[in-house]
TrEMBL record:
Domain of life where this protein originates: Bacteria
Protein species of origin: Streptomyces pacificus
Residue ranges of the TM segments: 12-33, 45-65, 85-107, 119-149
Keywords assigned: Membrane, Transmembrane, Transmembrane helix
Protein name: Uncharacterized protein
């Protein structure tokens, strides 16, 4: 018994693609954060699914890359990672990653804010570099997405 057509490249759900998985995860976030249906994303699941969605957005490119561009421009505008000592002094991308984790773990979060922080983390973590600890969640998210959408 096959779960996908043989021409689907071995993906469990058939041909999905990066744009398709981005669309599905965006719908899951919007509907799950609203919580009026059967699926209600609370704070931690919202962060996780938003991180997966943000990673998928980066992989899909095109219109899905707009949040990534917006966040990157905002960080650059604040002088983060430039070494020029912006509004907060010399703040590196690693410090922003740590700040995001502290907020996610310590602040009281609504599902909407959790999803926002997950999306931001999906953009900021890869900016810290491949050899940092922040690459691990990105690699895990990419592996999960690769299993679903080949």
């Amino acid at each position: 018994m096959y779960l996908a057509a043989p021409s689907a490249g071995g993906a469990v759900f058939g041909a999905v693609g990066a744009g398709g998985i981005s669309l599905v995860l965006a719908a899951l976030l919007v509907l799950g954060v609203k919580g009026k249906g059967k699926v209600k994303l609370k704070d931690n699941p919202a962060v996780i699914f938003a991180f997966l969605a943000g990673t998928a957005f980066s992989a899909a490119g095109k219109i899905w890359a707009n949040p990534e561009r917006l966040i990157s421009q905002g960080l650059t505008g604040l002088g983060v990672g430039t070494g020029s000592g912006g509004a907060f002094g010399d703040v590196g991308v690693g410090a922003v990653c740590l700040l995001l984790v502290v907020i996610i773990l310590c602040a009281p979060l609504s599902p909407g804010l959790s999803a926002s922080l997950g999306l931001i983390s999906a953009v900021v973590f890869p900016l810290a570099g491949d050899s940092t600890i922040w690459a691990a969640p990105v690699e895990l998210a990419m592996a999960i997405l690769a299993m679903v959408a080949a």
